[in-house]
């Protein structure tokens, strides 16, 4: 059987922590930032944990399951 390939877009967007959880960046931070408040933009800097319902599919794309 051929090797399983990692989904390239997924590996760029998600990171696996030491405990096996998945983290993601916040969206909405790439453009049209003038009208967004500073408080809102600060919130986009944070790293968020991926929800339980999405974790299984993302791990599969990363070749972890």
How would you describe what is shown here?
The protein has 65 residues and is of the alpha+beta class. The chain is built from three helices and three strands, in the order αββαβα. The chain has a three-stranded antiparallel beta sheet. Strand 1 (14-16) and strand 2 form a beta hairpin. The protein is elongated, with a radius of gyration of 15 Å. The chain starts with 7 loop residues before the first helix and ends with a helix. The mean pLDDT is 94.
Major β-sheet profile:
3 strands, antiparallel
Number of β-strand runs: 3
Number of helices: 3
For the largest beta sheet, what order do the strands appear in spatially? 1-2-3
Average pLDDT number: 94
Low-confidence stretches: none
Task: Tell me the span between the first and last alpha carbons.
Answer: 17 Å
Spatial shape: elongated
Secondary-structure element pattern, one letter each: HEEHEH
Strand content: 15-25%
Helix content: 25-40%
| Structural class estimated from helices and strands | alpha+beta
Q: What integer value in Å does the Rg equal? A: 15 Å
List the helices and strands and how they pair.
Blueprint: H1 8-13, E1 14-16, E2 22-25, H2 38-44, E3 47-49, H3 52-61
Antiparallel strand pairs: 1-2, 2-3
Describe the structure using short key phrases.
single chain, 65 residues, alpha+beta, three-stranded antiparallel beta sheet, 3 helices, 35% helix, elongated
């Amino acid at each position: 059987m051929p090797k399983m390939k990692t989904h390239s877009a997924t590996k760029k967007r998600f990171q696996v922590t030491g405990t096996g959880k998945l983290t993601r960046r916040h969206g909405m931070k790439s453009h049209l930032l003038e009208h967004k408040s500073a408080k809102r933009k600060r919130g986009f800097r944070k790293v968020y944990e991926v929800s339980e319902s999405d974790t299984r599919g993302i791990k599969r794309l990363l070749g972890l399951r």
